[in-house]
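Explain my protein.
***
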Amino acid sequence: MPAPAEGARSRRTGSTRRQFLLGGAVAGVGAVAAVGADIALNTRTPAPAPATPMNGEETVPFFGAHQAGVDTSAQAHGTFVALDLHDGVDRGALTRLMRILTDDAARLTQGIPALADSEPELALSPARLTVTFGFGPGFVERAGGAAPDWLAPLPAFRVDQLRPEFSDGDLLLQIAGDDPLTVAHATRMLLKDARGFAGIRWTQQGFRRAYGTERPGTTMRNLFGQVDGTTNPQPGTTDFDEIVWSGGGWLEGGTGMVVRRIRMDLDKWDRLDRSGRDASVGRTLANGAPLTGSAEFDEPDFEATTAIGFPVIPQFAHIRRARGDGSRRIFRRGYNYDERPLGAEVSDSGLIFVSFQADIARQFTPMQQRLDELDLLNEWTTPIGSAVFAVPPGCSDDGFIGDTLLT
């Protein structure tokens, strides 16, 4: 094949150089345009803030006369962790432990990362996070304090089938919030700082309706569909203060806490018709009204009888047994749980029953004894965990939770 003419080679070479230079110029213009676009994108006016605060930004004050998480409106998610103190942890070590945990909780509940927080980004949305501490009998003994008479395992009840992995403990952490990621992060931070002093005995996780699903103040429903907490005293009232807050010694301004894990046999409950469910509870499940009323907060008439003389609210109904003569009351703040079922069952579900009261022996125990004796719901419920704690008062910003006991 003959070689190309010199002019043709020259034209091709020149064309190639011009294309390269032109392409380079275009690329340079494109680069400048890209840089300009990047600057424009990164200097644009920020989007306006939402008219109403995001729920993730809401905080609950940590410091005060009482610990948060008792009279706080219940959040959507709750984690309960019971710890056993390591051997050799004495009063001095307990003081160090509670100073550290108090500092962690005070920061995290306000959307501030804990000191040396390994994932500080996860702490920035507090979502009404609260951390509540409870002391078991072993904690108070090592602190050298005088325990209230009721700070001991509950009496044995006939219906109980208690399991050690859900019972007792020296120190309780109740971590609650409206966002499960926030709760998980706070739990991990607290446990990391506690592990030199104590190990995990048990952990339980529960839930309620998600934030915004129902109007504030709506009574919780458990997984049987029944309203749970209709007769609760209202926080901020004298009634609540008398029922919940303790009035003496290092526990003044604190309270007594009962945590019971109650397995609910939903598969068996499914076989019960609606009238049987209403009768066993003593309320109409549709709206929570007592069988003698039409609205949830109507006062039940335990004297009312049917046309043939039977009580409208049966003797075995849960609300009758729980109420007694009405003189001894508690404040309930429980959570549902729903876990992987075993075998051929559809559900492994239940209630993390949590109650606060000034004197557990005087207020909670008599109620539980009545339920143990004759409560038709016992056909579908089984307590499998039980623990009792003294919840100390809150603290000032220069103190720590438990300082009334430890200093």
User: Anything to note?
Assistant: The beta strands are 77-85, 130-135, 171-177, 198-207, 255-264, 331-332, 335-339, 348-357, 381-391. Residues 55-406 form one domain.
